[in-house]
Amino acid sequence: MSDANDEGLWIRQYHPAPGSPVRLVCLPHAGGSASFYFPVSRSLSPDVDVLAVQYPGRQDRRHEPMVADIPALSRHVADQLAGWLDKPFALFGHSMGASLAFEVARILRRERDVEPAHLFVSGRRAPSRFRDERVHEEDDDGLIAEMRKLAGTAGSILGDEEMLRMILPAIRNDYRAAETYRYEPGPPLACPVTAFVGADDPKVTVDEARAWGEHTTGDFEFEVFPGGHFYLTDHSAALLERIRGALGVGVAAV
């Protein structure tokens, strides 16, 4: 279990919005960090109070031991969110973060009898859809090739040998966590779920993403965007409009 004093390490609040009616907790992709969601926080504030999760083993937490599996990581995140449940909250996760968001929602319902006002999942197949993937077993060159294929890391980083060596351990760790994750069947969630996917995402098919609808008895929405695994970097404005609408906070200022 996480120490409550660790909250400031795990939870980043870039643009506090105490008057907002809802919080959005954002969970990064494999190898990602909380700062990936800085633009989301800036765009949604002050209508939505955005929290971004910082996993151990990267950026300012790079000297901390990494968490090697989704169940353990979801336990840490659920524990750290305990002090942030005083208002309605939603969860957004991209790629590995989507699996993590789902498991966090399950823990909070099971142990605290609360569910998110909305679960947003992006770029990830439904938990009940399995792929035997083993990218985490590749050597460094193989892992870098995968990163280039997904185009999720800035080209300047991919060309910087020192920076690459710094982030590869976190990327490998997270790939291991995502690829060894196994869904344990249980009651579906009751909250609304919205799934987003890129039409040309090599990591998830449209049908695999649409299957998220099987994991809730609540409303389910599904949208396909042009692009690949990181479609959201090119379509952030449209994506945030969908999130605003689902959370009932109106439209963004022009």
UniProtKB/TrEMBL annotation:
Keywords: Hydrolase. Residues 25-247 form the Thioesterase TesA-like domain. It comes from the Bacteria. Pfam families: Thioesterase. GO terms for biological process: lipid biosynthetic process. GO terms for molecular function: hydrolase activity. InterPro entries: AB_hydrolase_fold, TEII, TesA-like, Thioesterase. Belongs to the thioesterase family. This is Thioesterase.
